[in-house]
Protein 1
Amino acid sequence: MDVYLPIANLSVNGLVIVVLGALTGLLSGMFGVGGGFLTTPLLIFYGVPPTVAAASAASQVTGASVSGAFAHARRGGIDYQMGGVLVAGGVIGTGLGALLFRVLQSLGQIDTVISILYVLMLGGIGGLMAHESLGVLRAERSGKPLPPRKRRHHPLVASLPLRWRFYRSGLYISPLAPLLLGMFTGILTMLMGIGGGFILVPAMLYILGIGVNVVVGTSLFQILFVTMATTMMHALTTRAVDIVLAVLLLIGSVSGAQVGAQFAQKAKPEHLRLILAVVVLAVAARMALGLGYRPDEIYTFVTQ
Amino acid sequence: MNWWRIPALALCLVLCGGARDPILVPEISQHEIQVRQGFTGADLLLFGAILTPEGNRAAGDYDIVVLLEGPARAITVREKKQVAGIWVNASSTEFRSAPSFYALAASRPIAAMVDGKTAAIYELGLKWLQLSPVGVIDPAEQKRFSDGLVDLMRRQGLYQQNEKAVQISGQVLYQARISLPSSVQTGTYTAETFAVRDGRVVASAITRVTVRKEGFERLVAASAEQYGFVYGLFAVIVSISMGWIAGRLFALI
């Protein structure tokens, strides 16, 4: 099924894009991450110009997180106060991301910078998650309960001034911490079309120490609004949002997200976290290899 | 009549051959390519006749070169190098006019037809593409970059060179097929036909092809360009409603 993408200026196999969307939707539903960290690189690999891929993947993440966010809202799984702070940071982040995008693009270093960031962060976060979930599983098998975690949030977070009470998250911390975290994911969303969920969820768990029952819902809430802001920002600055590409991705991802959510209800959280850790580590490893291997294309060009 | 006039006249007939140069009557199978939904590229048939100025069959051993060029634009070509174990864009160079599409079809290898100088003048062949580099760049480096670009574009099907693609029948009719991939830029393309004889370009003619988006594709491209805010808002609404509808549908199952 050939579909012509009017902004990307090329024709693609529509089914491939739908399947790609479904795959990332599945991840999104299962783990509460956007799945954009898979979509964008795969689209680029398929021949879609990087800017169009990043801009259109953001709207796919919006669609995939909508129903999840609604479901969590009904269950009371969203800390709106925390979510609001994260969104505020995220929107500032998309603005900064747009500036950064332009600078890095003109320097020709955008791909390298993003890849290095990815390797470092995915590697770190994936390792952390794998370590923790393995620990939990091992403890379960041996029957010994894990020693309770003493520190709820990172000491750096505690040292920030100005504290707010986040009741649903069960936290009394400075709003600057989630604001910075939101900004960071906002920048990443703008640069790579990712929702930032795979960074947000672990960061919320391990750095902020948010209660487990509101992590996924709040993360989806933030992703929803930040990807919306990103789509708008791209539509206004890079003008690279390909609506046809976005709709194809959406068809796959919104259904994938539903199936993923069904899986997530049946599976153990530790197992889910371990799977996510493996996926994240695999992407990090692939990116690390990509940096070191001789690339397929030594020469690339951009129009001025 | 002086005796020397006869050979002089004969010599003039040979040397002042300009008057006897043929004319080309080129035509293209379609002058407008519409990029619509399901566009997967287009096949163009470029054909025509070689005639004498009087309109008779030229009946000479002419070689034909057909050149289809897309709109040129300024580009930056980047080159990756391994720095501290990582492949990064290490250097770049700018070209003021790189065609977005270039396809050459010829009846015989260019090298056997004309010398390098002539080929360079008429840009006959990817080797002779005039990319107009910006700034003072050392020729070897410049060549590395342009070779890199040509190789990249060739593999994408946007630069083509096929030196056996022109068929000439009865020394009068010629035809060549050139295919455009779906990733072609919109704009006006020029198709130039050259008749070559004895290492000299003796005639040339130009026709044009317009590639443009039509219908829905045109609407999308135009609104993304002109009404970014509305377009973005529309994209956001579409994504939210699709996500919401999927949620509803699956809740029913």
Protein 2
Amino acid sequence: MTSSGTETGGPQPALRATGIRRHFEGVHALNDVTLELHRHEVVGLIGPNGAGKTTLVNIMTGFDFPSAGSVELEGTDITGWTPHRRGRAGLARTFQAAHSFARLTVRENIEVGALACGARPRDATSRADELLGVLGLTAHADTPAAFLPQGEERKLGVARALGTRPRFLLMDEPAAGLNEAEVPDLVSLIRSVRNEHEVGVLLIDHNVSLIMEVCDRIHVLDQGRTIATGSPEEIRVNLDVTTAYLGRGGAGGSHG
Amino acid sequence: MTDLIQSLVDGVALGSLYALAALGIGLVFGVMRLINFAYGEVITAAAYTLLLTKDLNVGLRILLAVAVAVALSLVMEFVFRPLRVATPATMLITTFAVSFLLQNVAVLWFGTQGESIGFLSDLNRAFEIGGIRIRWITLVSILVGGAFLAAIAYLLDRTDIGLQMRAAASDFTTARLLGVRATRVIIFAFILSGVLAAVVAMMLAVQRPLATPTFGFFVVIPALVGVVVGGLDRLLSATIGGFVIGFATVMLSDLLPSQSRVFLNSVLFGLVIVVLLVKPNGLFLRGAATAERL
């Protein structure tokens, strides 16, 4: 039914959106976009405002459905699946807004995801404690999530997503609201997610320097179409990307 | 003085019962944002089960009452399932409809007269301690109420399903996204609320041994008021609200002169209006609670 491996050639497990189109009342929000994410890599998804980044992520995570095209998770067609079914199948997402369970403690927040994805209670607790350590949240373990500072709450969002033992993680603007000093922490966090948890990360952010620093590959959208894919170096010198950003005065002009 | 202590003891007993009913309503509200007006009919069904099993031994009657209450609660869950995406108004009207439907089914089957349940009536006998007469059922209500409240608190706080219920109550959509099985959590809440309804029915059946179609309805109305007064948003505040209403009912009926007791409900609901005017989020919730949920 589905063929595995396209330009990468092998049957490597991947999250793959193929030929995605999405029309909203005559407007082409996405037009034949294909994106592939492998485990153990960080792919950046960038583009000016209105490029279709959020629509694509919504379609990949089940918050929206494509007018045409398909989404596959490790060879299984998941196009019509609900978000929580995708969650249990190994696809996690973090949100721009924190969405933490305000009254639960920080540790409990992480345990919920672990339990829901089949961990035993004891394993859920040890997984939560491990993630608290990795993300430097141990001191807040027993604090209700409502009392966490914004930066820490963002980390909790990542920890909670990782608690579900995802194989693929879609991060929606993790740097939004962080100050310059907090960005290096985020960079090392994303790297550890990729290297130590062997998770494929799709990173959407307006902070182009973050994207350039941490991504293995970058996928650039403009007006619903893919205008470039490649390594950060290739994207940096790509004329189309420069035009898309500078021409419309979008974010990230400093890297044009 | 002894009169006052007498009233206090009776108030705690009725308060415990209303607290259990309030908790039953609050558990379902927490995971589904549904105020189940038909909860009273679950209590009524348990009472009728006790009536119909008069000839069986007490243990079996208790088991059957719990089984019927849980079964009816699960049927309600199934009926309300399509409402998960409905507006609060639609939910409320539907539970009203189910409530009145079941009351009328009871009228058809059993009539409006009421029949004597005959359940553990020996517990109505009293013992005396320091000049205060305490009926055994008062003591049993307090102990059973306290035990069930503690058991549910433990369950919510210490078990994995309890944690998932609290997460779902805090942010249902996010809980689902993390993979929490919504239906499982909701079914579990309905089962617990069914068990609590049976417990309330049994405690009440001893004291008010007449099974009528509105047996549970008149428990749920004050319990609901308690839930709203306490604060619907949190189980603890809702439960305390239920307790306070039960307690206040007894205290007011004992304090009011006997010819004024017909005004008991007016006084009670008058107090409720004042409370909600002053603290619209409920007595035991901080003002920010509503915003926090959003």
